[in-house]
Structure formats: C-alpha cells, structure tokens
Amino acid sequence: MIIGVAVKPFTVAKRRLGLPAEVRSRLGKAVAQHTITQAASAGRVVVVTDSQDVVRWGRALGVDAVVQTSPGLTGAGQALIDAASGQPWLMVHADLPLATGADFAALVGALDNHSTVLAPSYDGGTPAIGSTGGFPFSYGPGSFRRHLAMAPSATVVVRRGLALDLDRIDDLAVAIAHAGFLESLA
C-alpha cells in the first residue's frame, strides 16, 4: 500500500482562505505535516508534488516524494498510480486538519476488501481515492458525484476527519473550533 499526499507549493497553497501569504504557507505546512503523520500510521506515505521545495520539505520529514509531471490533482493521482507499480494506492489531499490515524486505517481496511474506495468531503469534493488499478480522476467542484458515477461499485468511506478539507475560511473556522486542532499543529 502506498499513500500519496498531494501537496501544492506552499507559496500558492490556500489562496482561497484570503490570509496573508506567510500565514497560508505556515498553515499549509502544518496541516500537510499533520495529514502525513496521521497517514503514516496506515501505510507508506509519499508526498506527490510538482515543487522541488515541497520535495525537499517532505524529505526533511523523512518522506519520499513522487514528482508529478502533469499539473493539478489529476496529475498527482496519475503520478501516484505510476509509482505504485500495480500495488494498491491511496491518494489524499494534504489539507485534512481533523484526519486521524483511524480515518486512514478505515480507508486502507476498505481497500483491502474492495477494488476502489472514495471518501467525500462536506462540500462535495473527494479528499481520498484509493484503488488497486487505474482511476479516471475528475477533480474540481462536485467531484465526489462524478467519481462515484465513474466507479459505482466503489466503497464509500464517510469519516469526519476526511470530510473537512481546508478550502474556504469557513472550513478553517470549523477546524479551529474543533478541540485539539491548534494543538495538533504545534
């Protein structure tokens, strides 16, 4: 099992939050590190990115990197599939501030018994996709419905820690209101 955490360059991450660049960068790094740490309890984690700065950052954390050659989450997903070389893979977003090791264990457990797993976010996105083969990624607003339509036999894993990704300032407010969020980023 290989778990890919898609990480954008920290200089561009979280622009939709409307925060100053330095704050966005620190928040992006902290939440990505949290996601990686939690995912590592369930399998081998790699950072998937097109940024050499992120590759160096991940390596400093002790995490290997898969460098994507096509842009966006679709490019990251395809790079992970290629790196998985036929073994099961799990592609997750880096901005999952409430994710726990148990959330990743649930995804891996579902993938052990099914060929495809999907996890929806509160806003209709797909913060986690796993499979034992290829997958027709279709990220963007409303992606969960598209992904489920393309893989109707997929097992859907609904977990609070996977459902909240940091896309809007409201998402950050929800995360901050959650007990332990700020401490987990320290």
Description:
The radius of gyration is 15 Å and the shape is globular. It has a 7-stranded mixed β-sheet with strand order 3-2-1-4-6-5-7, with helices on both faces. It is α/β, with parallel strands linked by helices and 186 residues long. The chain contains 8 helices and 7 strands. The chain has helices at 21-40, 52-60, 72-84, 101-113, 143-150, 160-163, 169-177, 181-184, and strands at residues 2-6, 44-49, 64-67, 89-93, 116-119, 128-131, 155-156. The mean pLDDT is 91. The chain has a single domain (2-177), classed as Spore Coat Polysaccharide Biosynthesis Protein SpsA, Chain A (Alpha-Beta Complex), CATH 3.90.550.
Going by CATH, the architecture would be Alpha-Beta Complex
Rg from alpha-carbon coordinates: 15 Å
Task: Summarize the biggest pleated sheet.
Answer: 7 strands, mixed
Helix content: 40-55%
Topology readout:
Layout: E1 2-6, H1 21-40, E2 44-49, H2 52-60, E3 64-67, H3 72-84, E4 89-93, H4 101-113, E5 116-119, E6 128-131, H5 143-150, E7 155-156, H6 160-163, H7 169-177, H8 181-184
Parallel strand pairs: 1-2, 1-4, 2-3, 5-7
Antiparallel strand pairs: 4-6, 5-6
Helix pairs in contact: 1-4
